[in-house]
Structure to design on (580 residues):
């Protein structure tokens, strides 16, 4: 039951993100008479400090978090799995180098590196994606390496190697299918982490820039009016919590279902 | 010195060196010119050149890098472009506040997680268990830049119990500590629960029960003591998340620590301070992890004697 609900939230998130451009939204339309207006029948979620409709901005923000999450998790997964599995497969100097590099990247706690990098590169979604990917790939690389190390001595892999199958083919055909379950689980939690990270960076003013809307920047702007217009903080935060909660819930179920051992890496990155 | 300790030390030294180098190149590689920031847009090319020379920015990159690394070794991190004082002094003046915040957050997390995890494990499958795990799921999912404002709305603006922001009274730390500690509490309570459940299946627990010990005795005296080790490792690892989360939490509550200094300095493009903040936080994190590793190896001989792993 609760999984269905979570699934529903995520489908709605994706649909809004992909379909927002066809909706008659006016996220930047300023209407002075509506400034800080509380939710009512006409403006379902009220209006912000410039009289812009909160609901419209919320829906646009859904698109931002969805796109950033898909890009960052996709790119991190690609880079991480390639680097991690290749290093484990070939071994030797490249592997040792990768381990050393990973150790350095893991030495930056949480999203500290992303905060610094996004701040130095300047605001904007592209820089945000780059900064979060640079932080994100390490987790997948570590996991992929550990997984490949644990299966590369299996008999069918050794047989393929003895038959002279090219390494890339072995990795793609024989190793990746074996190691994909924990990676899928990790990527699911990764989506939750990236959604929080994107909002967090936008909250700090290092992500999406005005007038564009992101859930994080909406919370930041709303904090100033907490006393008179609490809906400005409540609405984007609730949307954010709902999405992250749903992703984490499904991740938990996925982990149980695929029978993956937990604790591959720290999950909180906010 | 045992080989394990030595290998951890060498690894930590390498990581600190790597972090220093990475931070140096990040700052030098990103767009934006510190000299332009310092002098403003109206500066003449000659002035800019003179300042560049004074700061050593006209030297070859490897030489600048070497200066930076040796500077870090002697606690010389340059001067802040904004405050016009040594970065190291700035960091030390702000570090106490961050330490206070993280320490309280840590206490909040342990105080919440221990009873929750115990309750969930002792009453596995009951409503208590679901409630505790529900809290845990909520705790990992709620971003601290939203939880913070919510707490302020309820307990500062609504009830007036705590200050909205700043660090002026003893009560100031309460809301920031809860905000920062909740996420850790969530992760920890899960760990306490699963670790306890694993231990509770062991033979010696069965014999303790068979000897007629009460459930309370079994849980607190026998199980918790042995379930503590994995929790301890997690604590060390999660302290990093705590330090990272402190950056955001400090901004929410206007808490005058390293995190707030970092974000302010990014906005002012005060590069030396940004460098210093990132280095300090990472160094603390690396050292804490090293200490956790060593402490853990002391307690558990399997780690010392077996392969160090990765």
């Amino acid at each position: 039951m609760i999984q269905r609900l979570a699934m529903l939230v995520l489908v709605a998130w994706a649909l809004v993100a992909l379909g927002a451009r066809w909706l008659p939204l006016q996220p930047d339309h300023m209407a002075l008479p509506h400034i800080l207006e509380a939710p009512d029948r006409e403006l379902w979620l009220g209006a912000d400090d410039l009289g812009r409709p909160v609901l419209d901005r919320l829906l646009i923000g859904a698109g931002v978090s969805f796109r950033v999450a898909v890009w960052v998790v996709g790119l991190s997964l690609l880079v991480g799995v390639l680097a991690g599995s290749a290093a484990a497969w070939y071994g030797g100097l490249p592997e040792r180098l990768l381990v050393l590099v990973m150790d350095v990247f893991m030495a930056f706690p949480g999203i500290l590196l992303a905060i610094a990098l996004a701040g130095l590169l300047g605001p904007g979604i592209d820089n945000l994606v780059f900064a979060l990917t640079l932080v994100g790939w390490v987790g997948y690389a570590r996991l992929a390496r550990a997984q490949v190390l644990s299966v590369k001595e299996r008999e069918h892999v050794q047989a393929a190697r003895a038959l002279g199958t090219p390494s890339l083919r072995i990795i793609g055909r024989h190793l990746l299918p074996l190691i994909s379950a924990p990676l899928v689980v990790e990527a699911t939690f990764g989506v939750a982490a990236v959604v929080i990270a994107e909002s967090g960076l936008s909250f700090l003013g290092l992500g999406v820039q005005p007038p564009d809307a992101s859930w994080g920047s909406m919370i930041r702007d709303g904090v100033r009016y907490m006393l008179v217009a609490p809906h400005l903080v409540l609405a984007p935060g609730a949307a954010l919590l709902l999405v992250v909660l749903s992703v984490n819930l499904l991740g938990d179920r996925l982990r149980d279902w695929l029978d993956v051992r937990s604790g591959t890496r720290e999950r909180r990155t906010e | 010195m045992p080989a394990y300790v030595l290998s951890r030390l060498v690894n930590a030294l390498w990581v600190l060196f790597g972090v220093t180098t990475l931070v140096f190149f990040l700052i030098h590689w990103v767009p934006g010119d510190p000299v332009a920031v310092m002098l403003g847009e109206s500066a003449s090319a000659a002035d800019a050149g003179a300042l560049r020379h004074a700061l050593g920015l006209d030297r070859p990159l490897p030489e600048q890098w070497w200066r930076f690394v040796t500077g870090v070794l002697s606690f010389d991190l340059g001067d802040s472009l904004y405050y016009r004082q040594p970065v190291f002094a700035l960091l030390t003046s702000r570090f106490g506040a961050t330490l206070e915040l993280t320490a309280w957050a840590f206490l909040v997390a342990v105080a919440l997680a221990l009873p929750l995890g115990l309750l969930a494990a002792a009453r596995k499958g009951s409503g208590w268990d679901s409630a505790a795990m529900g809290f845990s799921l909520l705790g990992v999912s709620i971003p601290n830049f939203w939880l913070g404002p919510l707490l302020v709305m309820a307990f500062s603006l609504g009830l007036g119990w705590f200050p909205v922001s700043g660090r002026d009274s003893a009560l100031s730390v309460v809301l920031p500590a809860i905000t920062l500690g909740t996420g850790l509490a969530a992760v920890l309570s899960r760990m306490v629960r699963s670790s306890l459940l694993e231990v509770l299946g062991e033979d010696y627990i069965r014999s303790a029960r068979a000897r007629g010990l009460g459930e309370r005795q079994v849980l607190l005296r026998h199980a918790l003591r042995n379930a503590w080790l994995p929790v301890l490792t997690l604590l060390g690892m999660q302290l990093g998340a705590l330090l990272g989360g402190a950056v955001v939490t400090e901004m929410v509550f206007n808490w005058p620590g390293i995190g707030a200094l970092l974000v302010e300095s990014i906005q002012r493009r005060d590069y030396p301070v940004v460098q210093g903040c990132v280095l300090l936080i990472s160094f603390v994190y690396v050292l804490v992890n090293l200490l956790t590793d060593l402490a853990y190896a002391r307690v558990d001989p399997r780690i010392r004697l077996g392969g160090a792993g990765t």
Remarks:
- Chain B has two domains: 32-76, 93-271.
